[in-house]
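re: ur question from yesterday

yeah so i grabbed the chain u mentioned. its 277 aa long if i counted rite. heres the sequnce exactly as i have it in my notes:
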Amino acid sequence: MTERTVVDDLGREVRLPEHPRRIVCLVPSLTETLFAIGAGDAVVGVTRYCEEPVAAVATLPKLGGTKNPDLDGIRALAPDLVIMNAEENRREDFEALAAADLAVFVTEPKTVMDGIRIIDTLGTITGQGAGATLASAQRARLDLTVQAVGSARRIRYFCPIWRKPWMAFNADTYAHDLLRTAGGENVCAADATRYPVVTLEQIAATQPEVVLLPDEPYAFSEKDRAALAPLAETPALQSGRVHFVDGKALSWYGPRIADGVARFAEIFSHARGGETS
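ran it thru and got these structure tokens back, copy pasting raw so excuse formatting
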């Protein structure tokens, strides 16, 4: 079998078959991406959180979760490529799979452009030219949104990812860069912790203009609106700008990137109202 060496996002050299035929993917958004670029036939196992594309993944073996994968099950499938993520998956699971002499390719996108690059990379390592095509299309559509946002005033937003306790994200995250690209200003950007625990009283002091409540990883819904009472005097609640949003649009890199940025850019544009740049 012809092999080659590729470099993953951790800077590791990984020996892979020229065309992997047995892929286990432990990253939900990248499972979707593999199918989007035509590599789905090679996917032999995924996590229980790999929900897209629905029909395609329904019959695939579910190998635990992203934080507690079924390592024995993965080894039994004898994959020639395992795709992981430095944040979504645990180091100890990576080390166990690498120690089993499996080819493990680790991703770590922190920006929108990183996310688009990964589409291209997956196309390269799976031998699918559609990866470059999809990445190029995403870049082109993203450019249109970036041009539309232009130099418009950035809109201060609060976007929690958890409740009890309230948690958000700082500038060193993919979600931050996606919303920055869309024209937002993260009120938690400067926190030293990537996913800080915050109080709504702290957030109220930052006077957010928009509150975004995603449906994953915590499934925010209308029942959580009352809990925002400490933000009652902020511009966001005074103007009724509390938005329940698609968590996949916020955090799933791959074919959703351009649509996600455009969707949030529209929310921020509406928040500016009649302002001129």
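noticed a couple things. The two ends are 58 Å apart (CA to CA). also Residues 3-108 form a domain with the Rossmann fold fold (CATH 3.40.50.1980).
anyway ttyl
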